[in-house]
Design a protein that fits this description.
The chain is of the alpha/beta class and 349 residues long. It is built from 9 helices and 16 strands. Helix 4 packs parallel to helix 5.
Length: 349
């Protein structure tokens, strides 16, 4: 039996959810509502039922799941109101704008006995999954440095994502994904220090790019970087381990691994650099290293909805858990604190 789903907000991500829901094996799209009437009319033109108000949507007894895909600052109030109306709730990311707000949402979930989660869909990104597997496999030994970057050159979006009041900025927009991925990769250690810096190249109100250095208690360093003014993009992931290195160049790439077989090499031939010789930077050869590619694993982002529905049915634990949501939000808040202080901040997350 499919669960009846309604979507609040029919913009970019609301449309994305609607498109997937229409092809879903676990949910049936019953309708949408947007505060802008032209978007409701656009839904009707696509053959999708549009409610006349949020109250009408929440009063529909056949709806048991509500996905909230509005600007960020509306997530909390809509989610709590929906849970109070007896609906299970999926919030688009970021789930909300503060740990205090998230605590209220979690308490509402407990009070009303409803499943509540955030749509961390990029846990299904294949590039991330390859790095996650690499960390766990230890095929290049213990990993001590990971660099995760997303670069573009079109600036911050010109809609509400560029406005502070609505929770705009790249730390909330893309950072929330990459930080969640970082905490999923380095699953076995707490965060002990965060140092974050903002870019304001195309927008002075919110960050249009940022760089966050995350240090874990086990010594792993994890760089998260988002740029919207990068006309040459750096690799999506770059990984250093005790026995080798790995790189994922872009979204569609396989994971290239260079593993060290033998550390020492006799009679290293110096290489000529721009103005001199060096043995230190002389390249390795096949005698001391091996190069191979880890294949891209299978992944289906709609598994998020499948898990959510089974959690509603009491058959599975939800994948994106409340404590994970709170941990990401704590890192975000420490990031803002670091920017304000212009210094690293110590934490225990």
């Amino acid at each position: 039996m499919k669960h009846n789903l309604a979507i609040v907000g029919f913009g970019g991500m609301g449309g994305w959810h609607a498109k997937h829901a229409q092809k879903s094996d676990v949910v049936c799209l019953s309708g949408v509502y947007d505060i802008k009437e032209e978007r409701n009319e656009a839904a009707r033109q696509m053959g999708i039922f549009a409610y006349s108000s949020l109250d009408e949507l929440l009063a529909d007894e056949k709806i048991d799941i509500v996905t909230v895909a509005t600007p960020n600052d509306f997530h909390k109030d809509i989610a709590i109101k929906a849970m109070a109306a007896g609906k299970n709730v999926i919030s688009e990311k970021p789930v909300t704008l503060s740990c205090a707000d998230l605590s209220e949402m979690i308490e509402a979930s407990k009070k009303y006995g409803k499943i509540f989660s955030v749509h961390q869909n990029r846990r299904w990104d294949v590039d991330f999954l390859m790095v996650k597997n690499l960390y766990r496999s230890k095929e290049i030994g213990n990993i001590f440095n990971i660099e995760s970057r997303v670069h573009g050159s079109r600036g911050i979006p010109g809609d509400w994502r560029g406005e502070k009041v609505h929770g705009g900025g790249m730390l909330f927009d893309w950072g929330i994904h990459l930080i969640d991925q970082a905490l999923q990769v380095v699953f076995d250690s707490k965060v002990c220090e965060i140092y974050c810096r903002f870019d304001h190249l195309t927008n002075k109100e919110v960050d249009d790019g940022f760089r966050m250095d995350i240090t874990f208690e086990n010594g792993t360093r994890y760089l998260v970087e988002v740029g919207t003014y990068n006309f040459v993009s750096m690799p999506r992931f770059y990984v250093l381990g005790e026995m080798g290195s790995a790189i994922v160049r872009d979204w569609q790439d396989k994971c290239e691994v260079v593993r060290c077989k033998e550390w020492y090499q006799n009679n290293v031939t110096p290489v000529v650099t721009a103005a001199g010789l060096t043995k230190t930077m002389a390249p390795r050869d096949e005698l001391t290293t091996e190069t191979y590619f880890n294949e891209r694993p299978d992944s289906d982002v709609h598994d998020y909805y499948r898990n959510f529905c089974r959690a509603v049915e009491g058959k599975e634990e939800q994948i994106v858990k409340h404590d994970e949501m709170m941990r990401v939000m704590k890192v975000i808040e420490k990031g803002f604190e670091s920017v304000e202080k212009n210094a690293p901040v110590v934490c225990n997350i």
